[in-house]
Amino acid sequence: MGSARSAILISAIVPQLRAKADAVTADLKQLNDIKASALAEEATLKANFSVLEEEQLRIATLIAARKQGIDVRSNELAAQEAEAVALAARATTLKELIDSLSARANAVQTPSAPTDPNAVTMTPEQIRVAPANSARTEPAMPFANAKGYLTMPANGVNVVDYGAGDRFGGISHGISVVTRAEAQVVAPADGWVLYKGPYLNYGQIIILNTGQNYTTLLAGLDAVSVDIGQFVLMGEPLGTMGSRTIGRTVTTNAGNSQPTLYIELRQNNEPLDPTGWWATPTQSG
User: Fold this and answer.
1) Could you tell me which of 154, 201, 219, 233 has the fewest CB atoms within 10 Å of its CB?
2) CA neighbours within 13 Å on the CB side: how many for 175?
């Protein structure tokens, strides 16, 4: 009788025990799955952290290299400016200054464009679309092809024409344009800045190497915003005029107390008549 009772009790308890055992087994399996997932996530995090460390190291290296490059560029720029200022201090005429600056530029640069201004010809349509690439690092076209397309450096009234008397006993080799006070001055063409800064009694000047042995001189500025050696695009700001005449650039009473920009084009360092070169002619005064 006792055995029977025990058998009955055991048969009643076994299913419950089996259910609990199955539940425990399921819980253990779930815990194992969670543990495996956690271990996998830990491995992923470690891998990502390693990649992040490598990326941080790469970025830090790039920043350091860039800073070093900027420092080197700054030192080179300072050296170029010091050399240009020294050349300007020794030069007694614009022709002498441009000669010395051009010789220095040719010594450190290999022109990528032909030196013969007539070596390349472009159709009007090609000339029109050439400046569309704003990422260019050299002139969009040979300077000779730009005749009739140059941007006037500043809006104003033309008070002295090329070849007119300059009231100092000579002939004007460029044009003088009276501008508004603090007018912006822009690059008439693509080119490299050969010189920027004061020169004799011309005030602040900018000399651009526009390629193919052409140069452009802008004089009478109050402030200059470009650096020597910098490549500038046609229409890009170069500086600003002042509120009055700066330098010996005005030869008429019309501009004696007004800001006046002197503009001179040169080919092989000889003055070039700018008539017909501008996309928008200046007003005659």
Assistant:
1) 201
2) 25
pLDDT above 50 (res 33): yes
Q: Detail the DSSP E strand segments found in the chain.
A: 157-160, 175-178, 184-186, 191-198, 204-211, 214-221, 223-224, 231-232, 237-240, 260-267, 270-272, 283-284
Q: What DSSP state is assigned to residue 69? A: H
**Would you say 104 and 191 are in contact if contact means Cβ atoms under 8 Å apart?**
no
Whole-number Å distance between alpha carbons of 163 and 174: 7
Q: What is the mean pLDDT of the segment spanning 108-130? A: 62
DSSP, residue by residue, 222-268: SEE---TT-EE-TT-EEEE--SS--SS---SGGGTTS-EEEEEEEET
User: Which two tokens mark 124?
Assistant: 């009007």
Ordered by start, the domain boundaries in the chain are 1-90, 92-284
Instruction: Please state, in angstroms and rounded to a whole number, the distance separating the CA atoms of residues 248 and 246.
Output: 7
Asked if pLDDT for residue 158 goes beyond 70, the answer is yes
